[in-house]
Specification:
membrane, Excalibur calcium-binding domain-containing protein, two-stranded antiparallel ribbon, transmembrane, 2 domains, transmembrane helix, mainly alpha, elongated, 49% helix
């Protein structure tokens, strides 16, 4: 048997839905606040270490490997007498990139002629 009554959807309870959205918004704001507080605490903590010579040395030992890996600094500065067969040798020694005027720089290693030999890959 078929009914000829039209279909009617059940009414939604909008108040609970609004309350759930409000709680989610409050939680998001709390996480943002706690995240900002953690970052600020880390900055203040690291900054307090920088006031002493030992603290600066500790910061340097932690930060330098990260900076070398991110290719922001060289692992080793070019030394007088450095001669490289190519960029792969300079990179393996940790002296790349080599700037014009530094030991080990030569025009043959500077492919684009901008004064920087063995530039990092991007």
């Amino acid at each position: 048997m078929r009914s000829n009554k039209p279909f009617r959807a059940a009414p939604l309870n909008r108040r609970n839905h609004y309350r759930d959205q409000q709680q989610s918004s409050d939680q998001t704001a709390a996480f943002k606040f706690l995240g900002a507080a953690a970052i600020l605490g880390g900055i203040v903590g690291a900054g307090s270490l920088a006031f002493s010579e030992d603290g600066r040395a500790k910061i340097g030992t932690v930060v330098k490997p990260v900076a070398v890996r991110a290719e922001l600094v060289r692992a080793r500065a070019p030394q007088p007498g450095d001669v490289w067969g190519g960029c792969n040798d300079a990179r393996a020694a940790g002296t790349a990139p080599i700037y014009a005027g530094e030991p080990g720089y030569r025009q043959g290693m500077d492919g684009d002629g901008d004064g920087i030999a063995c530039e990092p890959y991007r």
